[in-house]
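Lecture 7 notes: from sequence to structure.
We start with the chain below.
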Amino acid sequence: MTYPSDTDARVRVPSNHLMVELLGNRDVHIKRVENAFGGARLIARGNEIDITGDEREVAMVHTVLEELLVLVQEGQSLDADRVDRVISMVISDVPKPSGVFTDSIAVGRGKVVRAKTLGQKRYVDSIRDNTLVFGIGPAGTGKTYLAMACAVEALLSGAVRRIILSRPAVEAGESLGFLPGDLAAKVDPYLRPLYDALYEMLGPEETERLMDQRTIEIAPLAYMRGRTLNDAFVVLDEAQNTSPEQMKMFLTRLGFNSKMVITGDVTQMDLGNGRPSGLNVVRGVLQRVDGVGFIELTGDDVVRHRIVAAIVDAYTRYEAEMKARK
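Predicted structure tokens for the same chain:
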């Protein structure tokens, strides 16, 4: 392929190591950028990447490469998903896409958790800025995992003295029957996603130690009535399976120097009998209350296997079609 002799824009990379990271194996990353912008051409020479072509697309390609360079300078590795997300943000005119990926949540042991999409970044920002946050979205959008990361960060920094985890004990379309053991053992199957997140961030031993000390507490929704939760970071998961009365009861447990994050997916309700979801009702009740944030995550924020995003989008289209036919 031949390129024009003149150059419309140029990206200079400070070192050979960074250039290798930016280009990717066999130039896979810049080829991906070039394929996304049909009106621009890229050529790498030494520690420089020259860009030629349509003026508007040259400007966007230059921005994409500069943003990707920020990420590799931060020590982050690039892959197809991250390159595609930066491209999408630049096309959508999102300012400083690299800022989405470089903002970090410290979860101990030298480990950090980062948002992977613009929606996730807004979610984390909302948790930091508000007392009560609702993270609503489909499976795989990180709403529970990021809430847990923010809870761990708040605990380790001393912002709160304890983490309280809660979830309604509603089964997903099948009966689990009698569950033996004490309270923790009975609710363990329902809280497993929260345990998994804690084990990944803190490690199993530290998690168990903090639970033994009651610094991390399991508090099933049915046992929350009458409590006042001070100095705590409280996470309520699967909130689409709460009734309006349960949601009101839970929200009024909030105490001083505490923060609540409530997560749920309104497309996966298991209440049955046409009962209304407390998560649906609360959006209309608290939408305009100061200190309360509502973040809607979508299929664009799914960070699991790429087919999960396709499944979410397919179901969203199907449900919209079914609703339109009624």
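Points to note: The chain is about 45% helix and 15% strand. The longest helix spans residues 183-202.
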